[in-house]
Structure formats: C-alpha cells, structure tokens
UniProtKB/TrEMBL annotation:
Protein name stated in the entry: Nucleobase:cation symporter-2 family protein
Alphabetical list of InterPro entries matching this protein: NCS2, UacT-like, Xan_ur_permease
Sequence segments annotated as region (Disordered): 471-504
Key words of the record: Cell membrane, Membrane, Transmembrane, Transmembrane helix, Transport
Protein family: Belongs to the nucleobase:cation symporter-2 (NCS2) (TC 2.A.40) family.
Membrane-spanning intervals of the chain: 37-56, 62-83, 90-110, 116-137, 149-169, 189-206, 213-230, 256-273, 336-359, 365-385, 397-416, 428-446
Membrane topology, as annotated: Multi-pass membrane protein
Domain of life of the organism encoding this protein: Bacteria
Primary localisation category: membrane
Compartments where found: Cell membrane
PANTHER family hit by this protein: PURINE PERMEASE C1399.01C-RELATED (PTHR42810), URIC ACID TRANSPORTER UACT (PTHR42810:SF4)
Length: 504
C-alpha cells in the first residue's frame, strides 16, 4: 500500500489530470470517494429535512436517503460520462438542489403530509424534469436567446450566492448540527477547527497527492480522533440492513396537480441558472472552453436526472457547487473521477450499512471540511465576477443588490414565516432563489440583453492555464463560433460527441 501511495504521489507531481484523462483505478477510487464524502452531507440533508417535515417514519426516511444516493450516482455518471448529447462531460457531481426544499415542504404539507404528500411532490418533480429536458433541446437560436439572460455578471453572482448561502450549513455542522442537544458545544468547534487546520496544513505543506485528497484525509483523521475520544459512534451501522434496493414508485403512483407543478417549474428555472454557472465555473477551473451546446447538454442531464428522481422516489437534481469547489482545491480535473464517485454512490444507495458508516462522521468534523469547500465555491463565483467590469456602476449594482436579496431569508426570517402568504413564502424563502432572480432581473433592467450568449461570445476568452504553466498566465481560447450549437444536428461523424483532446 505504501508503494502504491508513493507511486500515486510521484504521478501527482507531474500532472493535474486533464478532464478527459482516465486515471489508474487506485486514484479513481480515492479521488472518487473523496467527492462522495464532500457531497454526502448535502445529498442526504434534503431528504432528511423534507421527510422530517412531512412526518415520515424512520424506515421511510432511510428509504428516501438510499433512493437519493442511488439516483445521485446514476445522475452523476450521466453528467460526467455523457450519453449521446446528454451530459456536459465535465467533473460535475449531481445532487438534490437545496432550492427545492421549501417548495417541496409546502407542497407536501398542503397535500396533508405523509407518503400521500410525496406522491404529489413526485408528480411535480417528474413534470418539471421533463420540461427542463425539453427546454434544453430548443433550436440553437432560441436556446442562445435564453442564454443571453445569463452573462458572467449573473452566473458569477449566482455562484457567489451559492457559496455564501452554503457557508452557514457548514458552520452549523461545525457547531454540532442544528437540532442537536449540545448545539454550540465548544468541543464541536474544536473538531471542526482541528479538521480545517489539518486540511489547510496538507494543502500548504503536503505533496501533490496528499493535497489532492486533503478533504478525505481530514474527514478520516477527524473521525478517528473523535472515535478515540468517544465522540464518534457507529451504533447505527449494526441496525441498518445489508441490502436496500430502490424500486420505481415505491410509495405509489405520482399525482399531478397544477399548483405544485407550476411551483416546481419555477424551482427548475433557478436550478438551470445554478447548473449554468457551475458548468462555466468548472470549465474555467479545468481549462476547457464551455459553449452553449455544453450548457445545453448539462441541462439535459439535469432534466433527465430530475425526471428519473421522481420515478425513483427522489427529488430535483442540479450540478453540485460544493464539488466544484473540491475540483478547484484538489486540481484533479478528470471527469472520470466523478464517474467513479457515481459508482460509489450507487453502491451506498444499495448498501444501507455502508451509508450508515459514512453518515457516522461527526458533525464537527464534517463542518470543518464543509466550511473550507463552501468558501471555495464562493471564491469560484468571485473569480467569474473578476471577468466583469465592476467599475461599471450598473454591474456593481447587479452584484451588490443581488447579494443583499440573497441574505434576506436568513437575516429576516420572520418576514417569510409570519407576514407572507404560505404559498408565496414557499417560493421566496430561499437565498438562492431571491439572489438568482434579482441578478437576472437587475441585469436585464440595467444592461439589457446582449447580442449573444455572453460566455460563448468570449467572456471566457482567457481561462487559467494548465497547472504546469504559471497560474497568472492566461491562455487565449479561440472563439467557439464553430462549436455545435444546442439543438443543431451535427454533420455525420463516427464520433459526434467526442470531446476535443485537452491541451498538453
């Protein structure tokens, strides 16, 4: 094992693994499992919150978590590997979107709670997924017209908002997890601080291989220390079943009602902005140009995954910003690492005992690692905004006012809970929803619509050089005018979906 680690470390010094590189199995396993640990808390928290709010039994809640992990695995493989013209073929992990939490709870409570409420939720999820999938097949001219709503000032703001909104999630875990009886106990902050310090130390002093799995080592090391001190328990592992198979429509046939469907369609509009921003951000990180067709493929994967989620007892899916931050931190750019992570997620979805082991990571340890990653998400958004002329007052207003709107739900929750209609509150009580909507509307008001998709037109004309070159030296990328546009039937080609080879 030591020789394997040494060999991997030596390899790590030579390459940061381009996006289309297939790594050796040991690396795929380690890097893929790190992605799983990085996204695990965010993946399971949505079914936990929604299931708890709807009054599901513990057994039903476990089933929701397993179904979520299983579907996450399939969705991530579709996005990273690609099937035909579906999937961005970038290292993007698919996870359940936080934007849908409040609307789904509102829909479920309006339907009376319990599993009967889930059927109404799933009807809306399936419909919204199909609509998203269909939207991404619009003709090139129509799709690019819509993409003009998302120039860098909008997508950069949305990514920054995501990081800022997610940071409290990591900090709450660092405090012991919301609802825990000892929330705020200094020992949780001690675990979080120790884990964070260990990760930062590995990033600063470690060899390239150690730096690339710093999050994984931080989680494992922090959990080991907590176990030795009696603060990490694995009792739930013995209680969990060995096998848990997810079956379509486990809770019954979905029900299709107009208001839940409209609400979920609005949610998917916001998730499309998220995925668009994450696609451009990760393309920037891995040094691969992203055009409208790439975004369209990413959105098709979102739509397909969301519709599949409704069938397999899960929820709407989006490209997970948390893992974009991880790609930036580790500099491991291979999309096949995400494929490996998808395989791990499918296995976890089938093995409740294995999922219970991962779920036993103490909140404090998880919070320390999550805080570092979420901060990197916000930084990815700031880097996108660096391409925008913020000296221009109009752009500055778009960013600043959107950030203010994003902080409103967390800062003044009473406005949404006591002074707003329940249906409207379910839609607006989300920092991501308000921030993204404000960015789109304010940009349209102040800047109007560009002549073309601002990203494809050259907003990303300079992307970071590969790791072998100095980070400060941008590499010009040819304008992607010749790239296939969304919805266009390419010329006959034995490999119409093959990606261009990465630059040496």
């Amino acid at each position: 094992m030591a020789r394997v680690a040494a060999r991997l470390s030596a390899d790590g010094e030579q390459s940061t693994h381009p996006v289309d590189e297939v790594l050796p199995v040991p690396k795929l396993a380690l890097y893929g499992f790190q992605h799983v640990l990085a996204f695990y808390a965010g993946a399971v928290i949505v079914p936990i919150i929604v299931g708890g709010a709807l009054g599901l039994t513990p057994e039903q809640l476990v089933y929701l978590i397993n179904a979520d992990l299983f579907t996450c695995g399939i969705a991530s493989i579709i996005q990273a590997w690609g099937i035909g013209r579906i999937g961005a073929r970038l290292p993007l992990i698919q996870g359940v979107t936080f934007t849908a939490v409040s609307p789904m709870i509102a829909i479920g409570l309006g339907a009376g709670g319990g599993t009967a409420a889930l059927l109404v939720v799933y009807g809306a999820v399936i419909t919204a997924g199909i609509a998203t999938f269909a939207f991404a097949w619009l003709p090139p001219r129509a799709f690019r017209a819509v993409m003009r709503l998302f120039p860098p000032v909008v997508t950069g703001t949305v990514i920054t908002v995501l990081g800022i909104v997610l940071l409290p999630v990591g900090l709450n875990d660092a405090a012991g997890g919301l609802g825990s009886p000892d929330f705020g106990d200094p020992k949780h902050f001690a675990y979080a601080g120790g884990t964070m310090l260990f990760i930062l130390l590995l990033m600063r002093l470690g060899r390239p291989f150690l730096s690339s799995i710093a999050i994984l080592l931080g989680l494992v090391g922090g959990t080991a220390v907590a176990f030795l001190l009696g603060d990490a328990r694995f009792d739930s592992v013995s209680k969990a079943d060995w096998i848990g198979v997810t079956t379509p429509f486990h809770f019954g046939a979905p029900k299709f009602e107009w208001f839940p469907i409209v609400l979920m369609l609005i949610v998917m509009l916001i998730t499309m902005v998220e995925t668009t921003g994450d696609t451009y951000a990760v393309g920037d990180i891995v040094g691969k140009d992203v055009d409208s067709e790439t975004v369209a493929r990413a959105l098709r994967a979102d739509g397909a995954a969301t519709a599949l989620g409704g069938v397999l007892n899960s929820f709407p899916y989006v490209a997970f910003a948390e893992n974009v931050g991880l790609v930036r931190m580790t500099k491991v750019k291979s999309r096949f690492v995400v494929v490996a992570a998808g395989v791990f997620m499918i296995i976890l979805g089938l093995l409740p005992k294995a999922a219970a082991i991962v779920a036993s990571v103490p909140h404090g340890v998880l919070g320390g690692a999550a805080t570092v990653m979420f901060a990197m998400v916000a930084l990815a958004g700031i880097q996108t905004l660096a391409k925008v002329d913020l000296k221009e007052e109009k752009n500055a207003l778009v960013v600043g006012v959107s950030l203010a709107f994003a902080l409103l739900p967390a800062t003044v929750p009473v406005l949404f809970k006591e002074h707003m209609d329940a249906d409207l509150s379910s839609l607006l009580n989300s920092g991501v929803t308000l921030g993204a909507t404000a960015a789109i509307v304010l940009n349209a008001v102040f800047n109007g619509l560009g002549k073309d998709d601002a990203h494809a037109a050259g907003a990303l004309a300079a992307v970071p050089a590969p790791a072998a070159a100095p980070a400060a030296a941008p590499v010009p990328v040819p304008a992607p005018a010749a790239a296939p546009a969304a919805g266009r039937d390419p010329e006959p080609d034995p490999e119409p979906d093959a990606e261009p080879a990465p630059a040496p």
